[in-house]
Automatic annotation (TrEMBL), chains A, B:
Pfam families to which the protein is assigned, alphabetical: HxlR
Gene3D superfamilies the UniProt entry points to: Winged helix-like DNA-binding domain superfamily/Winged helix DNA-binding domain
Source organism (scientific name): Streptomyces hainanensis
Classification via PROSITE patterns: HTH_HXLR
Keywords of the record: DNA-binding, Transcription, Transcription regulation
Name of the protein described by the UniProt record: Transcriptional regulator
Superkingdom: Bacteria
Ranges where the HTH hxlR-type domain occurs: 34-132
Any one GO MF annotation of this record: DNA binding
DNA sequence: CTGAATCCTCTATGATACTG
DNA sequence: CAGTATCATAGAGGATTCAG
């Protein structure tokens, strides 16, 4: 965050991404100052982390991933993989067989993500119950107060 | 998925999450019920992680946070703080002064998140350049191909 | 100062159908 | 098998206004 300036006069950013489905129409990186926020927004969607974790175990074929995740649509699987590929985290290899076989795997860079990601995942598992309890508690209180 | 005998003989369908080499055994749940995915969806939005990191440095007042983040709307700041509070990660203390002062801080549970989060943030900072380069490269290739 | 309420836009994601 | 193309929708998130 490079902030500290309280008077950013709304630069004419926002190039109005009217293009519906383009791959990353360059999101006017005025906000890209903080790499942490940037990265979280890039890998912080619903599927990226799971894909990285899956591919961290071993390379996978497209439909293998599709079956393994069970709940992701083809559209999002493809899109997420392409994003990860663009960011240099995932490699896509096409084998010119018939029918074509495509194998996805982590790049070395992607491999380095695996460790901090595991730390987070580990945290999630370890504190799952506490969070559940906190939520239950909060919701109970909220009801009681009305 | 009936009789199509491909070369992949009935894969275990439920790949264990994070089976590579964690310090602790991680229960291989189904992905749908995976606490990892759940937690990521809860804390994986645009602001939660940044707030936790900020509050990890020291307690903050509401407007302090608003100024510090530069880009978040009041609406989302309040909403995100409430979510974190509900999940037991953030504590909200109202001081009955005039005008009222509200202080936000991490709970002990929230404090435990700080470490894995820092690992991720660290990764983001360390590999920022590589990612940028990968993206630039990919975009260049994409243009050249047309 | 710390929000709540309202309205609105854009984005992420899904469903479905089609293709090399 | 490995995608694309198209349509549709819920919800994230912002802007603005009101209030204790």
């Amino acid at each position: 965050m490079s902030g500290t300036h309280t008077d950013v006069p709304a630069p004419p950013t926002v190039p109005s991404v009217l293009a519906h489905d383009l791959p990353r129409p360059v999101p006017a990186d005025e906000f890209a100052a903080c790499p942490v926020g940037e990265t979280f927004r890039r890998v912080g969607d619903r599927w990226s982390m799971l894909l990285v974790i899956l591919l961290g175990q071993r390379p996978h074929r497209y439909n293998e991933l599709h079956r393994a995740i069970e709940g992701i649509s083809q559209r999002m699987l493809t899109r997420t993989l392409r994003n990860l590929e663009t960011d240099g985290l995932v490699r896509r290899e096409v084998h010119p067989t018939v029918p074509p076989g495509v194998e996805y795997s982590l790049t070395p860079l992607g491999g380095t993500l695996l460790e901090p990601l595991s730390a987070l995942a580990d945290w999630a598992v370890r504190h799952e119950v506490e969070i559940e309890e906190a939520r239950a508690h909060a919701l109970r209180d909220r009801r009681a107060q009305r």
